[in-house]
Design goal:
This protein has 191 residues and is α/β, with parallel strands linked by helices. It has helices at 17-29, 45-57, 84-98, 117-129, 143-156, 174-183, and strands spanning 34-36, 64-69, 103-108, 133-138, 161-165, 187-189. 41% of the residues lie in helices and 15% in strands.
């Protein structure tokens, strides 16, 4: 999604709400029902714009909303990253901005080298169990990190990733990543 006022966040090229509404409406009328955004896009404005458009143009149960968590949203130690505190706060903020009580797919946007992946995965599992996300996924990480996360989740009985963004640095070929995902029952989101 390239929605959000150009004066918010780090996406100066993004479209504001007035310019984006006709595009969202056309997408819905053409049968597109999957919308992918992130908390970080235009500092949450992308989620706000999408939430308004879905409320005005569609029925929530017919739309698939994916959003992501990781990027800096405010100053301080919990204003970014994948700590339990950051994840729990950001899902609430994303739901408020989107105007919904759940997202269909909640994805980690990047690997957080400063936090144990176990902390991240347990927090994501708790979000799914609380009904705030239907599924979880990952974006922009190395294939071995994705595989490690799948294994840890399985060992602990936590919710596993069902989707992965296709921006996977360090892979020699896309076939390698696709094999990992398909073998583990995951879908890839091509970018």
């Amino acid at each position: 999604m390239s929605y959000g006022g150009g004066n918010r966040g780090n996406h100066a090229w993004s479209l504001g709400e007035a310019e984006s509404r006709p595009l969202t409406r056309q997408a819905l009328e053409a049968g597109i029902n999957f919308f992918d955004t992130a908390n970080r896009y235009s500092l949450g404005n992308s989620e706000e714009i999408l939430g308004h458009a879905i409320k005005d143009f569609a029925r929530r149960d017919e739309i698939v909303i994916a959003t992501k968590v990781h990027g800096r949203m405010r100053p301080g130690p919990n204003g970014a990253g994948l700590s339990r505190k950051a994840i729990m706060g950001e899902i609430e903020a994303s739901l408020r901005r989107l105007g919904t009580d759940y997202v269909d797919l909640y994805q980690i946007h990047r690997w957080d080298y400063a936090k144990p992946i176990e902390e991240t995965l347990e927090a994501l599992h708790d979000i799914v169990k609380a009904g705030k996300a239907r599924y979880i996924g990952a974006s922009s990480m190395h294939a071995q990190q994705f595989a490690r996360a799948l294994g840890i989740a399985e060992r602990h009985g936590w919710t596993r990733f069902v989707a992965a963004g296709y921006e996977l640095p360090g892979l020699r070929s896309r076939r390698c990543g696709a094999s990992l995902f398909n073998a583990n029952g995951c879908q890839t989101l091509h970018r």
